[in-house]
Design brief:
This protein has two domains: about 110 residues, Aspartate Aminotransferase, domain 1; about 240 residues, Aspartate Aminotransferase, domain 2. The strands form four sheets. A seven-stranded mixed β-sheet has the order 2-8-7-6-5-3-4, with helices on both faces. Helix 1 runs antiparallel to helix 8, helix 2 runs parallel beside helix 8 and helix 9 packs parallel to helix 12. Helix content is about 35%, strand content about 15%. The chain has twelve helices and 15 strands.
Length: about 375
């Protein structure tokens, strides 16, 4: 197979060898179901899962009980809607969203609004397309995208939450950290958010596993039911386990969870790739047929070719063995705000080199002439 230049890290990371070997070793030598057996092998798997949970907790400044394993960010956001619905007494809460949101963060609430189960208010953006701290609305629930997957700029999440709580101390804050977790050190205590989600596959782990942080798990009602989350059933009532088990009905994605610490360790050694981003930005900004959407210090490069449709551009760049992302990035609202249908995104990972960057720039120059 040809060697492709892969610059679509914001969509999904290539997997480091340490993750691949960890998963292979687990499947070959240690696999058993977790939380289901008392033999030594099953107990070892329980310990591996507990160790992974603690390392994820340390990674974001949480406690192990706050870390719920889900299948990904999308799963986490959809579950949070149901967890909040099952707990809140308010019949039609006001939910604040923004045009920076990924579809997975905002669509579940938009669907609730269509069914008249909530009302939506869109948070204003300032002239730089950041959430306007001076205009944070009063809301019952607030969805905060920590970093747009189109614009690549870190939002001041802690300040947004402080502003929201000044207007409603009981506001429920939900943070989308799918992009920012790669580029920014997260401490959930500093953010003071109620929920936060990110996906394993965007930091070098496998698909099928994600993290849902829950600040006060004891106050929230469960949303899924099945094996492993029940403590006991009597004639009078059902008693659920404490968190995180009460939120983890059924068998977890064990293989993926076991390798999560390897992905975190790999990510921690990466410099963020800003030198490559700066080099490519400085070259592309010179091109008259390229409209840049991001600034030089963004964590990715997004642009629009002026002389062709982005999907045609994507097909042409792909013919040169380059993997970039083209389209609306599952972020239609920010594209609508920019008055465009789609864009081209360049995002780098630890595997990318200066040679890769030069090649991609040269190809883009030829295509947009």
């Amino acid at each position: 197979m040809k060697k492709f230049v892969y610059m679509d890290a914001s969509a999904s990371w290539l997997k480091p060898q340490s993750v691949v070997e960890c998963q292979r070793n687990f499947l070959r030598n240690f696999y058993a179901n977790a939380g289901r057996g008392i033999c030594a092998r099953a107990g070892h798997v329980d310990n591996l899962i507990a160790d992974s949970r603690q390392k994820v907790a340390d990674f974001i400044g949480a406690a192990a009980k706050n870390i719920v394993f889900v299948s990904g960010t999308t799963d986490g956001f959809n579950r949070i809607v149901n967890i909040v619905k099952n707990t809140l007494n308010k019949k039609c809460p006001l939910v604040a969203v923004s045009d920076l949101d990924h579809h997975s963060a905002r669509l579940p609430w938009e669907m609730q609004a269509e069914n008249k189960n909530c009302k939506i208010v869109v948070m204003p953006l300032d002239d730089n397309l950041n959430i306007d701290l001076k205009k944070v609305p009063k809301a019952d629930v607030m969805v905060i995208t920590a970093m747009s997957n189109v614009l690549g700029v870190q939002q001041d999440v802690a300040a947004i939450i402080r502003s929201a709580r000044a207007k409603n101390p009981n506001v429920i804050t939900i943070v989308d950290a799918a992009q920012s977790v790669v580029h920014t050190k997260i401490n959930v205590k500093d953010l003071n958010c109620d929920f936060l989600c990110f996906s394993g596959h965007k930091i070098g782990a496998d698909t099928g596993v994600g993290v849902m942080y829950v600040k006060n798990p004891d106050v929230w009602a469960v949303d899924k039911f099945g094996g492993g989350m029940v403590n006991k059933i009597t004639d009078l009532r059902i008693v659920f386990n404490k968190s995180p088990e009460k939120f983890e009905a059924g068998t977890l994605p064990l293989t993926q969870i076991v390798a999560l610490p390897n992905a975190i360790e790999y990510l921690s050694k990466w410099d963020g790739g800003q030198k490559l981003i700066h080099f490519m930005y400085d070259e592309l900004i010179k091109l008259k047929n390229v409209k840049m959407l991001t600034g030089r210090d963004a964590c990715m490069i997004s642009f629009v070719p002026k002389n062709m449709h982005v999907l045609d551009f994507g097909a042409l760049v792909g013919a040169h063995d380059i993997c970039l992302r083209v389209g609306n990035m599952c972020a239609a609202w920010v594209h609508k705000k920019l008055n465009i249908d789609g864009s081209v995104r360049i995002s780098v990972g630890p595997w990318n080199t200066v040679k890769d960057a030069k090649y991609v720039v040269d190809v883009i120059k030829k295509l947009v002439q």
